[in-house]
Write a structure and sequence with these properties.
Structural class: mainly alpha
Shape: globular
Number of helices: 17
Helix content: over 70%
Number of strands: 0
Largest sheet: none
Distance between the termini: 28 Å
Radius of gyration: 24 Å
Amino acid sequence: MYTFSNKLKTFSFILMILGALGVGYGFITSHKSFEEVEHLLAEEAHHGGGHGEETAHAAAPSHDTHAADSHGEKAHTEVDEHTKHVEHVQHQIHNRPWSALYVAAFFFMMIALGILAFYAIQIASQAGWSPVLFRVMEGMTAYLLPGALIVVAIAMFSGDHIFVWMNENMSNPDHADYDKLVAGKSGWLNKTGFLIRALIFIGGWSLYRHFSRKFSIAQDTAEDKSNFKKLFRITAGFLVFFIYTESMMSWDWIMSVDPHWFSTLFGWYVFASMFVSGITVLSLITLYLKTKGQLEFVNENHLHDVAKFMFAFSIFWTYLWFSQFMLIWYSNIPEEVTYFVTRFQDYKLPFLGMVVMNFVFPILMLMNADYKRIPWFVVMAGLVILGGHYIDIFNMIMPATVGDRWFIGIPEISAILLFAGLFIFVVFTALTKAPLLVKGYPFRKESEEFHY
């Protein structure tokens, strides 16, 4: 049985405490008054700040107001535009800590969900190489339930700080915030429907995780293969459920931050990101446990196969990224290209940087078969891949919520620390609950003797 070391446990608590303090600081400092934002915009305009001509225009001093008598409506309109822009930027600044918290919460949740899908695929395909890693996968999936509930809680409590359609006035034709397109989608995009669907998703995923773990542990001491057969049957059903719910989840939890935009490829795109992230964390945890004298039955051939999946799904992610981008660029439809125009204008560094981290780097690091057997090489590649997919989620959320007011600073880093600490604590606690080898699994012997 594995024992959760006091050092690692303390480390996880330190991460959570530091993260919580930083997140709190982010919320406190984000509440800027109208005058503070107006002064900020004026400073940026004066120094030629990086927010373009719109800032300079919006931050123009309000000395035109006293000329309203002579300039009439024009001066009044300019004042209104100035006020609206300052309030808009003020709202973006208020959104930042909510968005940073949401990005990090979703990122760690998707790692658990991705490895749950990977685990199910291994069982459904009756793979012979992977059973020695099953208990590590089961430990990782323990984070799914609390992680997913946290994501939904942040979404619900944040209101329109993340999801603009949660502003009920957008569906009210008599209100200034009315948006015809959002109102047309209100049958799907409403708080009640969002919450009901979320609970169905989480309930289905968690039920499969619960029963698959139960049958897996029961098989350790069983005298027949009945538990394995039950596990196989529920896995087949779960994979069908997962295919539908993962796509709908990606629409609800990510794509709807931009309610004017949609992509029919988006569910697959998010799936590729969560799948490769989950497999990457599996490799990192496995290598950590190996350094602690655990998982003696895991050899370099298992590591090689995990790294192959990291490489393969990095390529798959790139294929989906390019397919989505190329089709939208080629058709050049205004309501579609706005998604990428925004990211190229205000997020060029993280947008192009994550393509390098998620595609170019894995190609260079993991294409060679020998490199996949070198632990430190896999760790280095894994950390870069995880960083790239965090930035991928960052790019999905931030442009719609904070616009050009983005920065990876205290709120973002603190949110990562908070959920990294929670993830470590939950996962390694789960690893202590059962032996790290599935003793009664039919393909255990084949997995232990696996060679490539």
